[in-house]
Design a protein that fits this description.
This protein is α/β, with parallel strands linked by helices. It has helices at 23-26, 32-37, 50-57, 89-95, 130-147, 171-186, 196-209, 227-237, 250-253, 280-303, 317-323; strands spanning 5-6, 70-77, 99-105, 111-116, 152-157, 162-168, 215-220, 241-248, 260-264, 273-276, 308-312. The protein has eleven helices and eleven strands. Helix 8 (227-237) links the parallel strand 7 (215-220) and strand 8 (241-248). Helix 5 runs antiparallel to helix 6 and helix 7 packs parallel to helix 8.
Amino acid sequence: MWPFFPKKLAQAEAVKPHEQPTDSLSNLYSHLDELVAFRFHVKQKKLAHQNQLMSSSSGSHHALRKGRGMTFSEVRQYQAGDDIRHIDWRVTARTQKPHTKVFIEEHERPTILVTEQTPALFFGSQTRLKINQALNVTAILSWVALSQSERVGGLSFNHQHHEWMAPKRSQATLLANLQKAIQLQTEIQRPEGVNPLFWQNSLKKLNQVAKPGSKIFLIGDLLQLSQTSRNYLQKLRRHNDIVALHIVDPLEKSLPNLGWLSLSQSHYSDTPLTLDSFNPETREWYAQRYQTQWQQAFKQFTQLKIPLLEITSHENPVEQLNRYRVIV
């Protein structure tokens, strides 16, 4: 995403290595009780189907798909007792051996939340940091899925490692997943620029652990994925429903009219970038750069048949998920 950090406006204070956050810094991080409270705001809510989100994100309006509550999982060799109506005749003709399509019932599909907690999200100009909003969205979707008696798990990652929690129909598993994500969050010492390798490594892990027929939510900064990451997503998309939720701060989309501003590429950068925000052409260039990145990423996800939705860090997360009809 946007690679610069405004020095005057929204730098999170750095934490020294091996130092626990002080009381003043603890307000920067998410707290489990706040994430638990979301369960009371999403009672009676359900997760929307991925096809509905593709329709809404592309601007069209399609009727709900009718069916028998089943989703395709894989093709395997025919076994005695399989329904002959599900025989895959193309594969059968190609291999000269009978093969059948395997389906999974909707209510048996696990929900997996992939949550970014990297230094690139350790930034916020209003209300909260992006790392907080990413975890808020994870908590909301987790509670909604669990209320539907679905198995819920997650893959959370920061700049050092990732934590995998296998999906279970258990509140204890859900809470453990959130707690692990909070721990990853508190390991962040300072803001840094986007590193595409973090998503790439996590998507590689996800391909290893996610079972076919899963509902997968990608939550974080998703505008600068590598080609390798997109290849991993393409593999995942063959047998899973995927929804991408891009977390953005309002300062990344538009430059405030505050005069000369100094920005740095990372906490370690000694060469600042100075911008005259009084100049309307500068503000237009700044906004256009974000829009170009967004449009490129949106096109890439659309080609993968994955809806990409924009979640702002300062707005109410429940209201935004309702507005996009991610939860209904």
